[in-house]
């Protein structure tokens, strides 16, 4: 319950951040400033102090409040987690079910595809994809920024779901009710949709919650390498990267608070994912 | 079974030890008893060949110490003053300013090298001859040698230069007979000690160009011994680095380290006896008249990140260091002086002005920024350069007020017909209200050029940045913040350096960060960046083209320094001020920290290779806990 509460709080903060950014973008009079403009050069590199009313967590190189950066960073992390999984889980689910149900050449093809992809270390593949997305624009989306990140993460992370769903489908395919459905001449796609998918859907839900964690961590790593979201977009990865040199000089706050935010979210998500599995996985229920 | 475990443990241990056994230890015995200076460099060395050298790291870490040109700069005097190095006095210039006759100093020898043969006491040497300079010019003109800096500076100015280049294109890269069979009209060895240069037009900056080590003599033997067998035109190995300088390249490991040792055949040269005002009080003239170099070995390690380099300085492993941005506030007090705590550690702060100007370039062929002069002026007015210097460079810089550095003649206004012309740009001040007024003008101009968005807004601008490091990104974000205050949005594009260069060359950038560091102390070096003929040569990367400016430039570049030329310079500055092809940012000031055991340190704004004048007190260093 606590975990759910924490996640809900993050989602609320992210939604708040989203609304705020949107309002700031719309506002041409600059009464509501986007984070990028909340600069106070006269108070740069301040440690956390209570007097800095809106910056009690300290400030960065341009005098921007670490507190705001952490809060607005939630939006980036959560959208990345969400979007990456929205791409990855359905792809994994569909391919896994098709491969598991039809078998033979289709199965071989899909297995070949994901084995090949999983041969390449995930982070290397991510970096390579992000590099190829430089200066690429598809359907009006500039892939060198955050959209490319969604796609790159999606491409890398459907494999796990696909494997699990395929195995589960192969098992379900042999069960009596599927055999019965086939015997009365129900076409394959209908069987897949009606009888197989509902029974593997719990995997998708679990993978969704766990995949969130991976996506958030990857975003942080890529932003740290300068390949994630564009500079200036509030994100925890960008914060860690920008604070990397600062830590050396004893300016710990920006790094620490970004890491703390990631830690709490990732922990909450992981525990939540585990519990979800306990609740949804029929095998575990009997143990 | 016991034997199995013993063998396993043994194999594991052996495997774990291999890295240590195979690692080569530093040759400490070689350094014993010698005066060694330790330091770091932060960028990779791209070239050890004077012809292909174009970056400051290659020049300052290796080439400046090894190669010498005909002329050079006085170590101490400011403003900088030319001195003859390999030449015997200043050149004899004909009345039409087109023929330069230069006598060489006699008895100057190359550092001993195997390419000159080996005698009973090791490698031999030989005296420098005028034909070695001819070879140097032939290599720069050679089609197969990528002389990225040395070529554009003399292009079109020496008789037969282009002709020679065209002819060498017909030869294969490894066919070095082109240096013997092809004649080069403009550069000629009259006898062993006399060199004659013939120019296509007067080029008053020639002497400054000859002061660059890029035009150092190259002995024929280097080509025969090191280049011919490899078939490559570029000098790439340490043993093929043969110069007349005070040091010899002993070891060079790419992205590793550089070891330079004293050149045993270095001519007798003494520490200067005169300097700029204040040098005597600073102790810079204490060694006057003594023979240089003082230091036996220059040991430089490649340290890419600023933090480890800083740690090496703090732990007394290195003698000299810059200050990382993050550490700046702890080291330098509010008055831009070293804090007492640091002074007590036995550290001195030495500041130096660099003849460089940093700016944001507007691509003048861009359909938005190129079309509206008012927009460029507005952006210049709205940019808070003072805060930019303070936040991004810890105040290590001055606001640039026109394209010519403030230490150069040509920076200040000149009175023509009772009116001041040139001088500081009227737009180089921080005035957001004036900027907003200019922006209204810019809207009209852009509307006329049909460059506004559908909703009548100024389109989002794009800023291309070199690199993806934290520093670069901060710079980009700062620009975003500044322009946004005018209501103009900026998108940042992070590139690596080669990608940015390629994009700039293809004119595919809109705004990008650049700057220029003077090659020689003449404002002409900065004006050539805006001469339209140099658009193709790559130096005019703003793609600025203005007929009036071109005419003034052509006229001025043939003139020796004179009041008339100063007027032309002022008029050129005036045009650039008004048209704003670049958003002027800062002139850098370098801060150097020096340990007390190092003396005779004075940063030189232009020249390289002054480590020969530095002195290190090794006993003092040991006593302080250093090496």
Could you explain the architecture of this structure?
The complex is a heterodimer of chains A (287) and B (627). Chain A is built from eleven helices and two strands; from the N terminus they run ααααββααααααα. Chain A has 287 residues and is an all-alpha fold. Chain A has one domain: MetI-like (MetI-like fold, Orthogonal Bundle), CATH 1.10.3720.10. Chain A has a two-stranded antiparallel sheet with strand order 1-2. Chain B is an alpha+beta fold and 627 residues long. Among the domains of chain B are: 189 residues, Alpha-Beta Complex (Dipeptide-binding Protein, domain 1); 233 residues, Dipeptide-binding Protein, Domain 3 (Dipeptide-binding Protein, domain 3), CATH 3.10.105.10. Chain B has a five-stranded mixed beta sheet with strand order 22-21-23-17-24. In chain B, strands 1-14-11-10 form a four-stranded mixed beta sheet, with helices on one face. In chain B, a hairpin with an 8-residue loop joins strand 2 and strand 3. In chain B, helix 13 packs antiparallel against helix 15. Chain B is globular, with a radius of gyration of 27 Å. Chains A and B meet through helix 9 of A and helix 14, helix 16 and strand 22 of B.
Key terms:
heterodimer, A: 287 residues, mainly alpha, MetI-like fold, two-stranded antiparallel sheet, 11 helices, 72% helix, B: 627 residues, alpha+beta, Dipeptide-binding Protein, domain 3, five-stranded mixed beta sheet, four-stranded mixed beta sheet, 32% helix, 19% strand, globular
């Amino acid at each position: 319950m606590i975990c759910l509460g924490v996640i809900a709080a993050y989602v609320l903060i992210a939604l708040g951040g989203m609304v705020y950014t949107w309002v700031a973008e719309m506002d041409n009079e600059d009464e509501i400033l986007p984070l990028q403009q909340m600069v106070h050069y006269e108070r740069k590199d301040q440690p956390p102090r209570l007097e800095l009313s809106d910056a009690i967590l300290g400030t960065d190189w341009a005098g921007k409040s670490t507190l705001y950066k952490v809060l607005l960073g939630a939006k980036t992390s959560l959208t990345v987690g969400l979007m990456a999984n929205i791409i990855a889980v359905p792809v994994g689910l569909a391919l896994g079910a098709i491969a598991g149900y039809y078998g033979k050449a289709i199965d071989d093809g899909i297995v070949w595809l994901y084995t090949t992809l999983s041969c390449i270390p995930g982070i290397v593949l991510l970096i390579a994809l992000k590099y190829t997305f430089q200066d690429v624009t598809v359907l009006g989306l500039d892939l060198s920024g955050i959209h490319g990140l969604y796609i790159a993460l999606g491409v890398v992370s459907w494999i796990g779901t696909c494997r699990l769903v395929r195995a589960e489908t192969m098992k379900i395919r042999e069960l009596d009710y599927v055999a019965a459905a086939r015997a009365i001449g129900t076409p394959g796609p209908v069987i897949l949709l009606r009888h197989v998918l509902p029974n593997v859907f719990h995997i998708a839900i679990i993978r969704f919650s766990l995949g969130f964690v991976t996506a958030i961590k990857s975003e942080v790593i890529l932003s740290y390498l300068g390949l994630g979201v564009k500079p200036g977009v509030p994100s925890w990865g960008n914060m860690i990267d920008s604070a990397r040199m600062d830590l050396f000089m004893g300016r710990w706050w920006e790094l620490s608070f970004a890491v703390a935010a990631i830690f709490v979210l990732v922990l909450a998500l992981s525990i939540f994912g585990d519990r979800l599995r306990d609740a949804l996985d029929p095998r575990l229920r009997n143990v | 079974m016991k034997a199995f475990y013993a063998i396993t443990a043994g194999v594991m241990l052996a495997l774990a030890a291999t890295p240590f056994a195979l690692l080569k230890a530093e040759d400490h015995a070689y350094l014993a008893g010698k005066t060694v200076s330790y330091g770091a460099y932060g960028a990779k060395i791209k070239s050890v060949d004077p012809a292909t050298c174009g970056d400051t790291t290659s020049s300052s870490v290796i080439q400046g110490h090894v190669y010498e040109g005909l002329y050079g700069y006085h170590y101490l005097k400011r403003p900088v003053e030319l001195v003859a190095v390999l030449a015997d006095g200043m050149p004899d210039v004909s009345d039409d300013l087109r023929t330069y006759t230069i006598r060489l100093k006699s008895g100057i020898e190359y550092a001993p090298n195997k390419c000159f043969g080996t005698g009973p006491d090791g490698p031999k040497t030989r005296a420098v001859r005028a034909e070695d300079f001819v070879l140097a010019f032939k290599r720069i003109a050679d089609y197969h040698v990528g002389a990225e800096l040395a070529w554009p500076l003399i292009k079109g100015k020496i008789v037969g230069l282009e002709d020679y280049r065209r002819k060498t294109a017909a030869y294969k890269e490894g066919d070095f007979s082109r240096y013997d069979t092809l004649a080069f009209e403009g550069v000629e060895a009259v006898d062993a000690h006399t060199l004659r240069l013939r120019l296509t037009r007067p080029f008053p900056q020639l002497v400054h160009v000859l002061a660059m080590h890029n035009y150092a003599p190259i002995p024929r033997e280097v080509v025969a011994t090191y280049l011919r067998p490899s078939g490559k035109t570029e000098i790439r190995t340490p043993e093929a680095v043969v110069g007349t300088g005070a040091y010899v390249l002993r070891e060079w490991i790419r992205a590793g380290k550089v070891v330079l040792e004293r050149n045993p055949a270095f001519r007798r040269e003494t520490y200067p006896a005169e300097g700029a005002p204040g040098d005597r009080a600073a102790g810079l003239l204490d060694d006057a008249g003594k023979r240089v170099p003082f230091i036996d070995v220059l040991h430089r390690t490649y340290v890419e990140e600023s933090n480890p380099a800083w740690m090496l300085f703090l732990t007394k492993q290195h003698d000299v260091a810059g200050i990382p941005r993050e550490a700046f506030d702890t080291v330098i007090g509010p008055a831009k002086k070293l804090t007492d705590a640091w002074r007590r550690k036995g550290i001195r702060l030495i500041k130096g002005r660099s003849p460089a100007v940093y700016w944001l370039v507007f691509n003048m062929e861009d359909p938005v920024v190129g079309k509206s002069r008012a927009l460029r002026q507005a952006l210049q007015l709205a940019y808070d350069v003072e805060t930019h210097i303070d936040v991004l460079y810890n105040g290590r810089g001055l606001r640039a007020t026109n394209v010519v550095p403030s230490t150069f003649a040509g920076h200040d206004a000149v009175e023509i017909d009772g009116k001041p012309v040139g001088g500081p740009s009227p737009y180089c001040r921080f005035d957001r209200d004036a900027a907003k007024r200019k922006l209204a003008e810019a809207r009209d101009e852009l509307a006329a050029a049909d460059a506004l968005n559908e909703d009548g807004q100024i389109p989002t601008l794009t800023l291309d940045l070199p690199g993806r490091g934290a520093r670069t990104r901060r710079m980009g974000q700062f620009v975003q913040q500044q322009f946004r205050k005018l209501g103009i949005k900026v998108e940042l594009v992070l590139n690596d350096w080669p990608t940015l260069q390629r994009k700039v060359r293809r004119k595919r950038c809109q705004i990008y960060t650049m700057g220029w560091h003077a090659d020689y102390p003449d404002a002409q070096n900065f004006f050539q960046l805006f001469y339209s003929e140099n658009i193709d040569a790559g130096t005019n990367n703003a793609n600025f083209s203005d007929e009036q400016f071109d005419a003034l430039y052509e006229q001025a570049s043939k003139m020796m320094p004179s009041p008339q030329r100063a007027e032309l310079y002022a008029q050129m500055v005036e045009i650039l001020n008004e048209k704003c092809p670049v958003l002027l940012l800062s002139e850098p000031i370098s801060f150097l920290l020096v340990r007390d055991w190092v003396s005779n340190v004075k940063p030189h704004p232009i020249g390289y290779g002054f480590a020969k004048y530095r002195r290190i007190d090794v006993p003092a260093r040991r006593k302080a806990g250093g090496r």
